Amino acid sequence: MKIVYLFPHFAHRAGTERILIDKMNYLAEEYGYDVTMLTNEQGFHPVAFPLSDKVRRVDLDVRFYPLYEHNRLVRQALWMQRERLLSQRYNAFMAKLRPDIVVTTTYYANLLKLVTQCPTPMVKLMESHIDRRFILSNDPINRKSWLRWLHMVKDMRTVVACARKCNLLIALNHSDAEDWGQFLPTTVISNVVHLNTTGFYTTQNSKRVIFAGRFTEQKGIDDLFRIWQLVYESRPDWHLDIYGDGELRPWMEQQAESLQCNIHIHQATHDVFKCYIQSSIFVLTSRYEPFGLVIPEAMSCGLPVVSFDCPSGPPDIITDGVDGFLVRNRDVEFFATRVVQLIDSREQRLTMGRHAIASAQRYSVDLIMPRWKSLFEQLVGQENEKKG
What we know:
Elements: E1 2-6, H1 15-29, E2 34-39, E3 56-59, H2 72-97, E4 101-105, H3 109-117, E5 123-127, H4 146-163, E6 168-171, H5 174-180, E7 186-188, E8 208-212, H6 221-234, E9 239-243, H7 249-259, E10 263-266, H8 272-277, E11 281-284, H9 294-299, E12 305-308, H10 314-317, E13 324-327, H11 332-343, H12 346-360, H13 365-387
Parallel strand pairs: 1-2, 1-4, 2-3, 4-5, 5-6, 6-7, 8-9, 8-11, 9-10, 11-12, 12-13
Helix pairs in contact: 3-4, 6-11
């Protein structure tokens, strides 16, 4: 079976990139599929995560980001030229390879147009890694001017129009699947998660709460700081350790310094499981989170999780009162109350942590990837039957 994963580039160490690369590696190595990583802007940038030698790398070398050096009129003219060039190179590549399946995400309207306008017959799949309502509106730059807003609306209409021409959308949660269901068939397959394989788990002896994630508006870090101020007022011997990176780092470091309430900002780490194991509680304050890889990661180390009941992933992962707590979205005061409740009861942390370890196993590669294999074989079989 020939499968192509289409994405602009894999140069950033971000969640979607890691998930797609993990799947490509597994499909090529474990199932022996002919897998191609197809990009258009990778250039000489290294791939952000380890990629199997069995995965073919192809870059169409049509880059759009340098166009922002030009004024709007020049940029628009050059953009149209490069879109035509990208379409030509993509169609030629697909005609030569003739894959069974092409997979792309809902993020990029220009790539979705390539997929749905290509004359080569194949199964066309969309993966949703951000709930439909947040695909484009999640980017703060789209709220800075009416021109950016109009561009966002136009792209969203293109995404929906392309969705109607695809075979299937795979969502990360049931709410998003229902939302997309008005445009095309959908199903839900959770992300594969890198679970704790160290053989060690938290002892719940550390007076440390941990947060890990990108330092962006989406993660609700302003609320995290407010929550911790409330926790610190009554439990000043506990510490909040924050791991990650992003545009909010300067503001966060300034806030941590001024508040003086045991908030410690760290760089993102390759050994995040060591950090989980050295902690006692994991917190997530996102404004929205279609899945949240860090939740089962932390749970697999024996950490109870306190999270806002935000759209739409955490409610699918956390069982409230069993392996963590779900708090009404943006209720900062009650969130702090739940954290203090866990701080005051090591026994409850240990009990919830045991449940969390068991719960996290739902996202192991051995359970998730066979679902992808079954789905691919079913769709290709159906397509072959149509051809007669």
